[in-house]
Amino acid sequence: MSFTSEIWQKNAALYETIRTMPFNTELAAGTLDEERFRHYMIQDALYLIAYGRALSIAAAKADSPAEIVQFANGAQMAVVVERSLHADFMEQFKVTPDVFAATPMTPATHHYTSYLLATAWSAPYPVVLASLLPCFWIYAEIGSDIVGRAAPNNRYQSWIDTYAGEEFHAAVRAVIATIDRVAASASEETRNEMHKAYTRAAQLEWMFWDSAYRREQWPV
């Protein structure tokens, strides 16, 4: 069994919890409240800036030229390509630049991005990659799941098509292959830390979607 297969199997119940949570169930049905999606979209755009920074740090720590390019390109995709997608959504759902600029990170977004950046700066390269993997892999799996059960004329079809699309899935497969390669030469201690990092980031994925569904704000 590959290292990433082992990680996925170990966290299968957590993925199923994410797959069936109200946000994703209602998004697939096309019944998700627009305010909840708008909240998610703004927070996701804020998240992607930090995710791009973490990918850039991973590129700097990479142990081969090919992986420097892989994660530098990933950072570009996170900041440029996906934010372009968000710009289209923001126009569609009437989020003005002023509204976006005035919206702070929620506690869940702040927690998740702080965790990724702290891990990117402080942890060894294999552990950094494991912490970044859930955002790639879980989104790809959720996209594939939702596209198969999405309601016709779904108002969120563009989002679904993006994360179910082959271009995104090819990038995910490449990251998985890199992590399996890195894990193969890692010590048992490092592999254990990779497991912990993946699980924590997957838990934060759940928190991020749940906070969007609740339209979370700072309590004080």
Automatic annotation (TrEMBL):
Coiled coil: none annotated. It is an enzyme of class 3 (hydrolase). One of its GO terms (cellular component) is cytosol. One of its GO terms (biological process) is thiamine biosynthetic process. Pathway: Cofactor biosynthesis; thiamine diphosphate biosynthesis. Residues 22-214 form the Thiaminase-2/PQQC domain. InterPro entries: Haem_Oase-like_multi-hlx, Thiaminase-2/PQQC, Thiaminase_II, Thiamine_Salvage_TenA. Keywords: Hydrolase, Thiamine biosynthesis. SUPFAM superfamilies: Heme oxygenase-like. It catalyses: 4-amino-5-aminomethyl-2-methylpyrimidine + H2O = 4-amino-5-hydroxymethyl-2-methylpyrimidine + NH4(+); thiamine + H2O = 5-(2-hydroxyethyl)-4-methylthiazole + 4-amino-5-hydroxymethyl-2-methylpyrimidine + H(+). GO terms for molecular function: thiaminase activity. Gene3D superfamilies: Heme oxygenase-like. Its EC number is 3.5.99.2. CDD domains: TenA_C-like. The keyword Kinase does not apply. Belongs to the TenA family. Catalyzes an amino-pyrimidine hydrolysis reaction at the C5' of the pyrimidine moiety of thiamine compounds, a reaction that is part of a thiamine salvage pathway. This is Aminopyrimidine aminohydrolase. The lineage of its organism: Bacteria, Pseudomonadati, Pseudomonadota, Betaproteobacteria, Burkholderiales.
